[in-house]
Specification:
553 residues; six-stranded mixed β-sheet
């Protein structure tokens, strides 16, 4: 998929940004199922609903304070929650409230940016005559096709301006709008039949989403967390709030679950942390659709130093072109030559969110295994971001393309690839996506197509991505001349190094008998008679030496 968005230079082409190695993840999260009994499930539900009501009230109070919030106001809220639960639960709730408010503010800022961009785009198009074409060099947008569309967009412009006034007022007052449990699930209450739910099932899901059973860890405390504690043997216990202390079945007001936690993924790393009393955060949540309880453990780790770009590409790279239904990959050596055969890793983005996530994980796992088999230590991928490129004002009536980029999981795919590649000690190199598909098809699709191998634009784009990561130009060298005219169809199409002079030009014009051109003062009978020899011309060997690296197909 080609990225063609960004600044344009004098020539009309976008400036290509430098490639870079993507930093690895700074945190770890693992999950395990809790096979709880009915009694344990009842206690967890009661505790979660009670703490969820406290979290909702605290978030409302924080929202009312707006920009006037300070440390003194936070201390007042925490003291009030401590009397109704405990000091540790009060700390967890207030911290979660601050994180939620900050997230809502970031979303509010992004919404403001989107509204202003949409208003500017519509105003620019309304100012143009009907049917006017765009002029990128002059910075002019295209006009609307019909009078009806122009009228509809003018009405939408007034709607967006009214919405902008409201959002700007909320922003200035520090007021955010948050739905605990999710706005989508709240709207589902009015469309139960379409969602395949009845009122009781919806209320169970709504109650589960509004529960609060999360606690941050603290280094130096026993097993890294005093509120939700999981021992090295897998025994899980929860510190009960003061009003629910009568439910305790263990000393110091704790409830010990019958279920045993066994983290299969990263279990050894988690066990090393809890044994050393290092901080581990836990979250317990209920999946009402499956009727299961889960516990998620997370912790931060020291950020690994970013590998230099030259070191990451020392053994070549696997160029990857992301598409709507597959990843196209091709291994390139250090000289930019494609090695072996192109690979395609398919996935299906239809269906539920869980199905899409599983499809993406499976495709990325196969990509990483292919990279290990090739011996490469880096994957080159386009640095795509369609966050601001989904609107009708940008892509007009092309509904199919708008739907494609709207459902394309660019951020999730990149984040998951970086996380999975870090476990395999494989670097991820992000490259500018400008013109990769266009130039890849122009310079690589036809030359690599054979009667037994069909090369697609996406395969050619993967070569372009890999070559850009390696620092090579995307285009190939010029084709060799016809036989018996220069060097009998020599290997002019091999990849030369970037520092090789005149690597993209035709063979230089060398005066002499071979080119039927003698310099002044010389001729067929003048000078060194060695120049008459058609083979092994000494002057030619000194002036022109062809690079010996072959183009691997």
């Amino acid at each position: 998929m080609t990225g063609i968005f960004g600044r344009t230079g004098v020539s009309g082409l976008r400036e290509v940004a430098a490639s870079f190695v993507v930093p690895g993840p700074a945190g770890v999260a693992i999950r395990d199922r809790l096979r709880v009994s009915e009694a344990d499930a009842a206690v967890l539900a009661e505790v979660g609903v009670f703490l969820g009501s406290l979290a909702a009230a605290d978030l409302a109070e924080r929202s009312r304070q707006g920009l006037a919030h300070d440390a003194a106001g936070w201390a007042v809220r925490k003291r009030a929650l401590t009397g109704r639960s405990s000091a540790r639960w009060a700390g967890s709730i207030t911290k979660a409230t601050h994180d939620q408010w900050a997230l809502a503010r970031r979303g509010q800022a992004a919404h403001l940016t989107w509204l202003r961009g949409q208003i500017a785009s519509i105003e620019a198009r309304l100012a143009r005559p009907l049917g006017a074409k765009a002029d990128k060099r002059a910075g002019l947008a295209r006009g609307y096709a019909t009078r009806g569309e122009w009228h509809a967009k003018s009405r939408r412009l007034h709607t967006l301006k009214d919405r902008l006034v409201v959002v700007e007022a909320d922003r200035a007052a520090g007021r955010v709008r948050v739905v605990r449990g999710g706005r989508r699930l709240a709207n589902t209450r009015h469309h139960l039949e379409a969602a395949g739910l009845d009122e009781q099932a919806w209320r169970q899901r709504w109650r589960a989403e509004r529960m609060f059973l999360a606690a941050d860890g603290e280094s130096g405390k026993r097993f890294g967390n005093e509120t939700i504690r999981v021992t090295d043997t897998g025994r899980l216990s929860v510190k009960l709030p003061a009003p629910l202390a009568h439910l305790a079945n263990a000393p110091h007001g704790r409830y010990l679950l019958d279920a045993v936690v066994r983290f299969q993924h990263r279990g050894a790393e988690w066990r090393d942390r809890v044994t050393a009393n290092r901080a581990v955060a836990y979250r317990i949540h209920h999946d009402t659709g499956r009727g299961r309880w889960y516990v998620t453990a997370s912790w931060q780790r020291a950020a690994a130093p970013v590998l230099p770009l030259e070191a990451a590409l020392a053994r070549g790279v696997v160029g990857v072109d992301m598409n709507d239904d597959h990843l196209a990959a091709w291994h390139l050596d250090v000289h930019g030559n494609p090695v072996g055969e192109p690979q395609r890793f398919f996935y299906d983005l239809t269906g539920t969110t869980e199905h899409r996530d599983a499809q993406i994980r499976h495709a990325l796992a196969r990509l990483l295994h292919h990279t290990r088999r090739c011996g490469a230590a880096a994957i080159a991928i386009e640095d795509l971001d369609f966050a601001a490129e989904k609107g009708r004002e940008k892509h007009g009536r092309n509904k199919r393309f708008r739907r494609l980029i709207s459902r394309f999981p660019t951020a999730k795919l990149k984040a998951r690839l970086v996380s999975m590649a870090a476990e395999q000690n494989i670097a991820v190199v992000a490259v500018d996506p400008a013109y990769t598909s266009r130039w890849g098809a122009q310079h690589w699709q036809n030359p690599l197509t054979t009667p037994t191998r069909k090369i697609s634009r996406h395969d050619a784009a993967s070569i372009a991505v890999g070559r850009r990561a390696l620092g090579h130009p995307i285009r190939r060298r010029t084709a060799p001349p016809h036989p018996d005219q220069s060097d009998h169809g020599g290997h002019r199409t091999v990849q030369a190094r970037p520092d090789t002079r005149r690597r993209e030009e035709t063979r230089p014009h060398i005066p002499g008998p071979r080119t039927r051109c003698a310099p002044p003062g010389s001729g067929a009978k003048a000078g060194d008679q060695g120049a008459q020899h058609r083979s092994g011309h000494p002057a030619e060997q000194e002036v022109w030496q062809q690079h010996s690296l072959p183009l691997s197909l």
